[in-house]
Amino acid sequence: MGNRGMEELIPLINKLQDAFSSIGQSCHLELPQIAVVGGQSAGKSSVLENFVGRDFLPRGSGIVTRRPLILQLVNSKAEYAEFLHCKGRKFVDFDEVRLEIEAETDRLTGSNKGISPVPINLRVYSPNVLNLTLIDLPGMTKVAVGDQPVDIEYQIRDMLLQFISKESCLILAVTPANTDLANSDALKISKEMDPQGLRTIGVITKLDLMDEGTDARDILENKLLPLRRGYIGVVNRSQKDIDGRKDIKAALAAERKFFLSHPAYRHMAERMGTPYLQKTLNQQLTNHIRDTLPALRSKLQSQLLSLEKEVDEYKNFKPDDPARKTKALLQMVQQFGVDFEKRIEGSGDQVDTLELSGGARINRIFHERFPFELVKMEFDEKELRREISYAIKNIHGVRTGLFTPDMAFEAIVKKQLIKLKEPCLKCIDLVIQELINTVRQCTLKLNSYPLLREETERIVTTYIRERESKTKDQVMLLIDIELSYINTNHEDFIGFANAQQRSAAVSKKRAMPNQVIRRGWLTINISIMKGGSKDYWFILTAESLSWYKDEEEKEKKFMLPLDNLKLRDAEKGFMSTKPTFAIFNTEQRNVYKDLRQIELACDSQEEVDSWKASFLRAGVYPEKDQPENEEGVPADSLSMDPQLERQVETIRNLVDSYIGIVNKSIRDLMPKTIMHLMINSAKEFIYSELLAYLYSSGDQSSLMEESAEQAQRRDEMLRMYHALKEALHIIGDISTSTVSVPPPPPVDDTWIHTDPSRRPPAAPNRPTIIRPSEPSLLD
Hints:
Elements (H helix, E strand, L loop, with lengths): L3 H4 L1 H14 L10 E6 L5 H9 L16 E7 L4 E4 L10 H16 L10 E7 L5 E5 L15 H13 L4 E8 L8 H9 L6 E6 L11 H4 L10 E3 L5 H5 L4 H14 L12 H40 L8 H24 L13 H20 L2 H16 L9 H13 L2 H22 L7 H35 L10 H7 L2 H4 L8 E10 L7 E9 L2 E5 L7 E6 L3 E5 L10 E6 L11 E5 L3 H13 L3 E2 L19 H47 L1 H8 L2 H4 L4 H25 L47
Parallel strand pairs: 1-5, 1-6, 2-4, 6-7, 7-8, 13-16
Antiparallel strand pairs: 2-5, 3-4, 9-10, 9-15, 10-11, 11-12, 13-14, 14-15
Helix pairs in contact: 2-23, 10-23, 11-20, 12-15, 12-19, 12-20, 13-14, 13-20, 14-20, 15-16, 16-20, 16-21, 17-20
Keywords: Cytoplasm, Endocytosis, GTP-binding, Hydrolase, Microtubule, Motor protein, Nucleotide-binding, Phosphoprotein
InterPro entries: Dynamin, Dynamin_GTPase, Dynamin_GTPase_CS, Dynamin_N, Dynamin_stalk, G_DYNAMIN_dom, GED, GED_dom
GO cellular component, one term: presynapse
């Protein structure tokens, strides 16, 4: 070819195939290639051996080709073969090539005729070949033989489709002439993947074995099942010739003589035979590469750009350089600190849109989970009144008290304050868990250095655990401080005078009756007999819960007042897996239609907790199991005289007022205490002390030892990068506008259907002269 750049195309694709095969991505860019398909014993191996001029492929009965063989033919003065898996070793004896193919096949598939899609890369250098790359695929079969899996037919079909389904792949469909072309496995599967026949090249073998009086002229003239690229006939060596070690050069001479002397083929002898097939494949593969070059260049550039950022990190990379290790350690620890702070404080870059994480989850703990736990602990009306009643009676002893004892108030308040410890400790535990999860997420970037990641995670987690005990001690100290002095002079405390005038209903009155507290979707679970579960759009205000058909809030379905409502946990429905909770009326009234309670479901437990916290803000509290008294009599059956009942109500209002003050203070102090003693302290530790701890924990050199996976990934990435860069460099030198060989035109077979006198004259039936001085059979 006149354009040297175009001559470099096939070697270029060979280099790319080698580069991608070595890193397990041989098909990633859909490189232009030719795949050889056909049934078993169709003559595929003989065609390839004729190209090379050597016997080098395994032979036998059944499936012989059990792994794809990427055969790269390179025109060269010397003659030898190389395998990609045996780098640096040159095979000059082609019998050894056959043995190596068999051994490499058995290494992956075993000796039981199994197959594998992992290719073997073989490159053959020879003066007798043109630059050409083909992929020899296993022959199609119908029946499993011996130890083959029963689905061997479908396994082979799937493997073939992996290659020929790609638009960049030309299909060399090999069919023996002594079988019915309409039943050809190769043409059938090619037709499925290439309905227009634009990528398929037909090869007809065993023309010399057809029954006497028959020929394949109509097929070769492209009249029967025409293909865009036509058919080429070849004559391979017979099994007797192969067993007798007949020379391939002599076989090619016999093939040439066959076409020139056969009356049905001599008029097209110049377009038949192995040499013509090889030249045609070289030309068509080159033109096919040229046609796909723009898309290939675009993909190469895209891949290169995606790798450049990572490759920049490895410029002048020296794995064992102490200075590099020290610098890398410092950078990674600094980046770890930045990532940890961003996850806690929030950041606009790399926002997680799938779930809450880090600081957002901790914020939910502070302002939804913790207040919910406090209210659950606080409101247990009947038990509280029973305790107040017992406290008043026990303080008065045998006497009947005329005045409300303040000692009863202090005793009840202190008991309620002690109950604050459990939700406070639970809050700390939840925050600890989120911090540890955040540390693990941030150390993912240290995966390249497993020892460094493990040590960093250990040191930071240990420090957080140390701060956990100090934080819990501080929180317990806050509770003990509250217990040490009951400040009845607090400005927000109602005092005895006001407590006697207030009722429980007044104390629960909502300050902002029209405030919208929450909007969102909930599912109402109703029994299957009554219509199943339905999704509605809910609006919760301080006075009512309303639901609508959708979020446009146009069609209101129901409005439920919040008076006398409480929450309880509910089991998941029979047909539902969503977390569920229930709303019921404490006065045993129907809540919705004829239902005593309605069950509401969310997509996640976090949403359930969030809705419960919203109901608490609206004054709807969770139910608590009511214990029985010592004698087994229910608490609500206790009778009280009017004077005692007034005293209980007074103490109850006082306790409610004071606990409200303390809860407000605790809700404010808990996040501040945890932030100061644990979270901010952890951030400070990571920035200022983590590096020193890592230096003191052991050998810094061992900390910065790369994982084997990372070293392999870096090497593969660099190989890929250089292969892509080299490919783009070569492609950049190619001028696709000045190609000496145009793409093959559509096959013009109109002369076949017209006057026979218009046909080209038949070639004279003269003997073929083989010149011994020829340097190549293909010249």
